[in-house]
Amino acid sequence: MTKCIIHSNIKLCEGGDTVVEETIKEIRKTEQEAEEIAANAKSQGAQILQQAKQETERAKATMIENAQEKAKANREAAQAAGERRLAEALKSAEKEIAGIKRTAKEKEKQAVQAVIESLI
């Protein structure tokens, strides 16, 4: 049991000062723990932010690399298609040239024949 003493209209209990000291210690300890938790949270937040930045940079680099590879493949496909069209155009032109040469030879024979007939 605790004995109480009345002094200056304040009721104090024996052993009460120990409880107050322990309460103050607990409060200080809790405050310190809260500060440590806040510091850890800040540190973890900074780490998470740094990791997010690194992941973003890696993702960005990967996206750029993929886009460049896709662009290269598209460019090569377009170049191959252009080369095929050029080859087709050349074949067509060669056929047309051969046809014109045949027509010219035929007309030449006709012209020679016409000159010979006019001389006879």
List the topology elements.
Layout (H helix, E strand, L loop, with lengths): L3 E4 L2 E4 L2 H104 L1
Antiparallel strand pairs: 1-2
Give the helix level as a range of percent.
Answer: over 70%
Quick one: overall form? Answer: rod-shaped
Strand content: 5-15%
The main sheet orders its strands as: 1-2
List the uncertain runs: 1-12
- The string of secondary-structure elements, in order, is EEH
| Structural class based on helices, strands and sheet pairing | mainly alpha
* Number of distinct helices: 1
Summarize the main sheet.
2 strands, antiparallel
Beta-strand segment tally: 2
Distance between the termini: 160 Å
CA-based gyration radius: 50 Å
How many structurally independent domains?
1
Tell me, rounded to a whole number, the average pLDDT.
Answer: 87
Provide structural commentary.
It is a single chain. The chain is mainly alpha-helical and 120 residues long. It has one domain. It is 87% helix and 7% strand. The protein has one helix spanning 16-119, and strands at 4-7, 10-13. A hairpin with a 2-residue loop joins strand 1 (4-7) and strand 2. The chain starts with a strand and ends with a helix. The model is unreliable at 1-12 (pLDDT under 50). It comes from Blautia hansenii (Ruminococcus hansenii). Residues 42-53 have a biased composition (Polar residues).
